Structure to design on (224 residues):
DNA sequence: AACCAGGAGAGAG
DNA sequence: CTCTCTCATGGT
């Protein structure tokens, strides 16, 4: 078993299954959430998402037709309302005009990731989040936590490009969307339970990270 | 009371 | 391609 798979099992043992971790009842909710949560906490993004749902602005058509100022006022709790309102509009326009108003149709495209990245406001992490959590496609999501934790373990370089890190994970793991979902959720859970100090050399935190490498099974096994 | 959070785009060099 | 700046709100 390689290190990436081993760490996954350690995380799961420590924190348990995270199942249905990404909020949203429809694939489009999940896509909206992916934009709203950019550089903010989930609690803030969730309030904004709920506001949209309450006003029935949770479908591509509805967002397409509503005034952008209306969107701004509803998503205010998520921050960056001026740009995120535009991003949501772009997502709605793209979905209506290229996907027949259904985000699921992304699956039928030959290059779904490139298509998403062509939408202004959707970068790599957001695109992968949508592909993975809304469409169940095996794209690994790399966020700031992933970068920090795995660079502390010397398994990736802190300043490595996004796609390199994602590819490292995907090469080491089976191409399984459910596995990728759990893994990302567990990384976030692990990160949330660290101390507030930003120092990357905090002893307690480093120790916690190193727990991920240790084996709780047969201590003499050689294949990890 | 400063500082940053699960980011992304634009502009500069 | 790699920096740096900006965008806004809520929590410590």
């Amino acid at each position: 078993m390689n290190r990436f798979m081993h760490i996954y099992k350690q995380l799961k043992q420590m924190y348990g299954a995270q199942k249905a971790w990404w909020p949203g009842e429809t694939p489009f909710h999940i896509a909206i959430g992916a934009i709203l949560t950019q550089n903010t906490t989930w609690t803030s993004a969730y309030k904004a998402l709920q506001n949209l749902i309450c006003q029935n602005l949770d479908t591509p058509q509805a967002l397409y037709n509503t005034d952008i100022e209306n969107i701004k006022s509803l998503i205010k709790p998520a921050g960056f309302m001026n740009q995120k309102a535009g991003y949501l509009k772009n997502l709605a326009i793209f979905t209506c005009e290229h996907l027949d108003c259904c985000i699921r149709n992304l699956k039928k495209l030959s290059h779904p990731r490139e298509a998403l990245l062509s939408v202004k406001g959707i970068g790599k992490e957001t695109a992968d989040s949508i592909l993975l959590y809304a469409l169940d496609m095996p794209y690994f999501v790399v966020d700031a936590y992933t970068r920090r934790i795995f660079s502390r373990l010397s398994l990736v370089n802190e300043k490595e490009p996004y796609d390199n890190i994602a590819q490292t994970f995907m090469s080491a793991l089976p191409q399984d969307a459910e596995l990728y979902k759990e893994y990302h959720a567990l990384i976030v859970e692990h990160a949330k339970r660290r101390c507030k100090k930003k120092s990357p050399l905090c002893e307690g935190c480093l120790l916690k990270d190193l727990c991920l490498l240790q084996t709780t099974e047969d201590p003499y096994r050689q294949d990890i």
Notes: The two ends of chain A are 5 Å apart (CA to CA). Residues 39-41, 43-44, 76-84, 161, 196 of chain A lie near DNA strand C (CB under 10 Å from a C1'). Chain A has two domains: 3-18+141-211, 27-134. Confidence is low (pLDDT under 50) at residues 218-224 of chain A.
